[in-house]
Amino acid sequence: MSDTAIDRRRARGDASRRVILESATDLASVEGLDGLTIGRLAESSGMSKSSIATLFGGKEGLQLAAVQAAADIFREAVVDPARELPRGIARLAKLLRSALDYSRDRVFTGGCFFAATAADMDSKPGPVRDAVRGWLRDWYGYLEAQVRFAAEAGQIRADAATVRRLAFELIALDNEANARSLLTGEDAPYEIAAAAMRERLLQVGAKAEDLQSLA
């Protein structure tokens, strides 16, 4: 087989993989990772079971690939835009707004992919739960790091304990907005959460001009 033919075959495989993972991540956000099987995905995506099995090897391989694909989408939607701003309070505010928008705009039909799948996998040990847990640990840690940078730069008043608690409160507001909107079908929870986040950051000394993303 020529190099050109190999490249074309690889390109077709990559395209098929992208299409399948788009369907897989969206399906998992609604039905959970445990419900993400080759048969169920073949039904929802229109791809054959054999094609999916060839690309991912089995249910666990498919689930792990879906987690990675969802992480990439979240990074592009939430984390990368915030990195255009300096570390600290301005980046934190942008991260929080982007996280709310990611859920509100239904990047995934079931809202936040990781909120949905964490609830699905939290009592099921194994590589898939480890992947979800690892991503959540990284996301929570990254957001907490921005709170810490803000404190160290004098942008907010917070000791080590307050940094951890404040990060927890901000994440909880984001998660509740996601859950409440999915339940009610309304956008209001996102604006309530944004206002509460802004108020909480103002309480610890953040400047209003650094919180424009949450205004």
List keywords for this structure.
215 residues; elongated; 9 helices; mainly alpha; Tetracycline Repressor, domain 2; disordered N terminus; 0% strand
H/E element sequence: HHHHHHHHH
Give helix % range: over 70%
Task: Give me the CATH superfamily of the domain at 65-214.
Answer: Tetracycline Repressor, domain 2
Assign the CATH topology of the domain at 65-214.
Answer: Tetracycline Repressor, domain 2
Decide which structural class fits the backbone.
Answer: mainly alpha
Please report the number of helical segments.
9
Shape label = elongated
Enumerate the spans where pLDDT stays under 50 for 5 or more consecutive residues: 1-8
Concise summary:
With about 220 residues, this protein is mainly α.
Tell me about this structure.
The chain is mainly α. The protein has a domain at 65-214: Tetracycline Repressor, domain 2 (Orthogonal Bundle). Helix content is 75%, strand content 0%. It contains nine helices and no strands. Helix 3 crosses helix 4 (59-82), helix 5 runs parallel beside helix 8 (160-184) and helix 6 packs across helix 7 (127-152). The protein is elongated and about 55 Å long. The model is unreliable at 1-8 (pLDDT under 50).
